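Sorry, I am new here, but would you mind making up a protein's amino acid sequence and the tokens describing how it folds?
***
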Amino acid sequence: MLIVFVLFKGLVFVTGMVFAIKWHYDREKTRTDGQALRRMAATLVVGFVLLLGVVSALTFGLARMLGMDLSLP
């Protein structure tokens, strides 16, 4: 039983080390591609703001069409 436990523990340790090395290697590759990440973030922010404007315009248009009073007091 002790042999099975030691083999299992060794297998878990080796698997963890492989994933740790792979994670560090992948992280180093993505660190050099920071400009693409910033471009994608900017695109998402612009898209979100445009979508927010469209949804707001549709909401106010529907409210006016239904005859709701949208004036401030």
Observations:
- The two ends are 79 Å apart (CA to CA).
- The chain has a mean pLDDT of 87.
